[in-house]
Amino acid sequence: MHVHFLQHVPFEKPAVFSDWVEKKHYPASRTLLYNNEKCPHQHTFEILVIMGGPMSIYDEKEYPWLKQEKEFIRKSIERRKLVLGVCLGAQLIADALGANVFKNEFEEIGWFPINLTSDGRKHRFFTDFPVTSPVFHWHGNTFEIPENAIHTLENPACRNQAFVYEDHVVALQFHMEIKQENISEMLFFAGNDITPSRYVQSADIISANATERTKPLNKYMLTFLDRFVAQNSKSI
What we know:
Layout: E1 3-7, H1 16-24, E2 28-32, E3 47-50, H2 65-78, E4 82-86, H3 88-96, E5 101-112, E6 115-116, H4 118-122, E7 135-143, E8 149-154, E9 162-165, E10 169-172, H5 180-190, H6 203-207, H7 210-232
Parallel strand pairs: 1-2, 1-3, 3-4, 4-10
Antiparallel strand pairs: 5-7, 6-8, 8-9, 9-10
Helix pairs in contact: 2-3
């Protein structure tokens, strides 16, 4: 089971995804898009994980590699690869499935809870989802739920937090893969984005107890990945 990562900036890394790959002894590779690396041939991987980044999906003039990436994601979905995207990765998946991506009413940066929708509570991927634990957010854009996708998570700041498409594609607007050291890097490189407001916390609040906050999220993410692969194992 070969896992391929798409990475948009050096400081948004696979984090706990890398732990999972190592635990499973899966081969892994990555495309560092910020270095203008080319995406691989579709036959070289079974699982595609699309990481986050500070850019918008529409910033093709500044980041020309976005055009190549969007086509690569579309092809991966069409060929029924297992596709998982977080934050910007989720927005790119929504775009690939024909849904609009647009500026959200609120910026959402920091630790905020999310809730399962009625469909999310029924979905096998989200059994035991830690709804009592705030998850980590860093986004200003959002997406519509694509046609035929299942809307699974929401909150007051951003209604569309996650969706599942045909059980082999999952988009998560938030971060559960993140570790304390990843948060520190994001604050170092992108901390200028922070102007505290209703759904934007200060750097001090974001940093406080980050190690303890990430533990339940990382644990759930590992369980989620196992379920995601198990559900699709017969078709891979």
